[in-house]
Write a structure and sequence with these properties.
By secondary structure, the chain is an alpha+beta fold. It is about 20% helix and about 30% strand. The protein has two domains: about 70 residues, Orthogonal Bundle (434 Repressor (Amino-terminal Domain)); about 150 residues, Immunoglobulins (Immunoglobulin-like, Sandwich).
């Protein structure tokens, strides 16, 4: 049995974000790290880290944000929130803030709770071409049994984009995706109160980059069970050593 990892902190809404300088200071204290150590672990200078914290540095790379997230032991998605929006490519420009709790779109007693990344946390660095198995754990936290559901890949519905400070327009900063053996898998029937683990085999690209894969739960008719803000995702940085 693989031990469960502590789930990184995720905001429920964009409005709930604390200031970035407060987040960095808080996580540094919790981890017992100095700002110099955080900067070193993230592969950036202390001056640049202070610039990010104060808002003076407005255009960090996805790799920088991913490495900073690893240094602070938080989800990269949380870092992206400060400099980018995760939005639906086929939807309006309104922003999306992933949450660990999904409420049924047609049944409020249908509740899904994301409880853990069992394997391969989102800030994991993998080798070019590496094959790995990502496992998420969910809990049926509602009063309805889950039957006939599927976990479906929906990368085409979502992109990670940077919102321009000047005019609010979006510029895609991550549109590369992980290769997976399947594009959908069945969700085991799950009774209320019970957990379920879902696993996908991925293959990393052969070039250095940061890539993502996004999944959602659908019913037997192909309809999303939960809103657009409840997704499962895998984000890894591919790096040769």
């Amino acid at each position: 049995m693989v031990p469960l990892e502590r789930k990184p902190e995720l905001p429920v809404t964009i409005k709930s974000l604390e200031p970035l300088n407060s987040l960095i200071a808080r996580r540094s204290r919790q981890l017992g790290k100095s700002m110099s150590t955080v900067a070193k672990d993230a592969g950036i200078s202390r001056t640049y880290l202070y610039g990010l914290a104060s808002g003076a540095s407005q255009d960090p790379s996805v790799r920088t944000l991913t490495k900073l997230a690893k240094a602070l032991q938080v989800s990269p998605i949380l870092m992206f929130r400060y400099f980018a929006d995760l939005v639906g490519a086929r939807a309006s420009s309104s922003s999306l803030a992933p949450t660990n709790r999904g409420v049924g779109t047609s049944d409020k007693d249908d509740i899904a709770l994301f409880t853990a990344d069992v394997t391969v946390a989102d800030h994991t660095v993998v080798l070019p071409g590496e094959v790995f198995r990502k496992t998420w754990e969910l809990q049926n936290a509602g009063s309805r049994p889950w039957r006939g559901r599927r976990l479906v890949r929906v990368d085409g519905d979502y992109v990670i984009a940077r919102r321009s400070v000047a005019d609010g327009s979006l510029e895609v900063v991550m549109d590369a995706h992980l290769a997976s053996l399947y594009r959908e898998i069945p969700l085991p029937d799950t009774l209320p109160g019970h957990p379920v683990q879902l696993s996908i085999e991925f293959a990393a690209p052969k070039e250095t980059c940061t890539v993502a894969s996004i999944w959602r739960i659908e019913d037997d008719q192909g309809n999303p069970c939960y809103g657009r803000d409840f997704i499962l995702h895998a984000i890894v940085t591919v790096m040769a050593f």
